[in-house]
Design goal:
The structure holds 2 protein chains of 2 kinds. Chain A is built from 6 helices and 9 strands. Chain A is α+β, with helices and mostly antiparallel strands. Chain B has 12 helices and no strands. Classes of the chains: A alpha+beta, B mainly alpha. Chains A and B meet through helix 1, helix 3 and helix 4 of A and helix 1, helix 4, helix 5, helix 6 and helix 7 of B.
Chain lengths: 222, 229
């Protein structure tokens, strides 16, 4: 078989020419055994294309949905355990959280209501509260989140603006990243609460907070 | 501040130094200044250079590699969803750990035959396949113990056409330049014209090599091909 024949067959296999192309038909008439073989290779070409498309699509989707937690996980896997250090990022995150807490506390002291029910600090989660109050049957929606396979999204309700101590109520968000309180949930709450969403992982035996929303000051409607 | 530095992670004492001790394979083609250009013969020369610099302890390159590979866990989630999300969270977490461990241990062997993310994707794909195979084996054993046949069918996830290890091993077995032509055409999305231009050969020669390569690839894959759905 000549290089010209191979080129023609490659064009057919890759879908560049139609099976009815005169030159191809002439080749198949001259070498009938090539027809079935070329068709099999066209199938193989198709399978390779599907594999390659899958790879491209997965990579593109992954690039678009990579979270900070993913990046930290990759770095952690690349770092020998004996050389892991206390991540500076967590300290920075704690400082930012503290600063936000102080600002919110001062707002609370001045008697100012929470300005908007949806906040997003750019890096953390957003928490959208329809109607701006905590009401039975009304969903709270967490945004800007991609929940990892070993992570949970929770809504924490505190009685004070510093979110000190344990939450008085913790709700688990559903697959749509929503949590809807019921009447029973609200019964034990004070008239004003402070609510935030947290993305946690039960790694290391206790919930490790990876991302969180700012704390929202909400009135409770019963 | 770079990713590595932000996380208290120094190329000279961490990732770079760890990998530096591993033996480096020879690059598949002689390193020249031309190889650095993605528009010249080797489309992945820049990635190979990046990895080699990271392994040598270059902090900027280390950060760049870590940033590029940060999408690996998301790749696993995406691929798992496409296969019908059959694994439990703990099983998927194990796959994630295995894939990342394999990835870092094999990084010194990166030969620049594919884009860095594509190379990483194959580890994710391989580890996921191994986990799915383990799950299928367990399901069959469970069936032997009296499980419900319908339940087993429901658990059968989407099965891809090739075992990824077999596919890429078979392509590599074609040897250069055919293996490169097949990879670049399918996985690098390069047309025959572009491959010919980069290699300084005629389109006719490239196509002939591709066709003959495909013939050999079919013979290598035939025993492993799964039925088309």
């Amino acid at each position: 078989m000549s290089q010209q024949d191979d080129e023609l067959l490659a064009s057919f296999v890759a879908g560049e020419i139609s099976p009815d192309a005169p030159a191809l038909q002439a080749l198949f008439e001259r070498r009938p055994e090539l027809r079935a073989k070329a068709q099999e290779l066209a199938q193989l070409h198709g399978r390779l294309e599907r594999e390659a498309r899958l790879e491209r699509e997965v990579i593109a989707e992954a690039r678009a949905s990579t979270t900070d937690f993913d990046r930290a996980r990759v770095v952690r896997a690349a770092t020998p355990a004996s050389r892991r250090r206390a991540p500076i990022l967590w300290a920075a995150a704690a400082l930012v959280t503290l600063a936000i807490g102080v600002v919110l506390l001062r707002q609370g002291e001045r008697g100012e209501p929470a300005p908007i029910p949806t906040l997003n600090d750019g890096q953390g989660l957003s928490l959208d509260v329809a109607g701006g109050e905590l009401r039975a049957g009304l969903a709270l929606t967490v945004g800007n989140v991609d929940v990892g396979f070993n992570q949970q999204l929770k809504i924490e309700v505190f009685g004070d603006a510093q979110a000190a101590g344990a939450a008085i109520l913790v709700g688990k968000a559903d697959a749509q990243h929503k949590w809807t309180p019921n009447l029973e949930d609200l019964a034990a709450l004070p008239a004003t609460v402070f609510v935030r969403a947290v993305l946690v992982s039960p790694e290391d035996g206790s919930d490790q907070v990876y991302r969180e929303s700012p704390l929202l000051r909400l009135s409770v409607s019963r | 501040m770079g990713v590595a530095a932000e996380l208290g992670f120094q190329a000279t004492t961490g990732f770079g130094a760890e990998l530096h001790s591993a033996p480096l394979r020879r690059p598949r083609r002689r390193a020249t200044s031309q190889r650095m250009s993605t528009d010249s013969g080797d489309p992945y020369a820049a990635d190979l250079d990046l990895v080699r610099r990271a392994i040598a302890g270059d902090g900027v390159a280390t950060d760049a590699v870590l940033t590029r590979l940060g999408c690996v866990p998301a790749m696993l989630r995406s691929l798992h969803r496409r296969f019908g999300a059959p694994l439990r969270a703990d099983e998927l977490a194990e796959v994630d750990q295995n894939a990342l461990a394999a990835l870092w241990s094999k990084l010194p062997g990166f030969e620049g035959r594919a884009m860095l993310e594509s190379w990483a994707f194959r580890f994710v794909q391989l580890e996921l396949h191994k986990a799915l195979d383990r799950r299928r084996s367990r399901a069959r054993l469970t069936l032997l113990d009296g499980d419900d046949l319908a339940e087993l069918s429901a658990r059968e996830e989407v099965v891809p056409a090739f075992d990824p290890t077999i596919l890429h091993t078979a392509i590599a077995k074609l040897g250069p330049p055919t293996s490169d032509i097949v990879s670049e055409h399918h996985f690098g999305e390069l047309g025959f014209d572009e491959i010919a231009r980069r290699r300084g050969e005629s389109v006719s020669t490239i196509k002939a090599r591709y066709y003959r390569g495909l013939e050999r690839l079919k013979a290598l894959l035939e025993p492993h091909l799964r039925t088309d759905s």
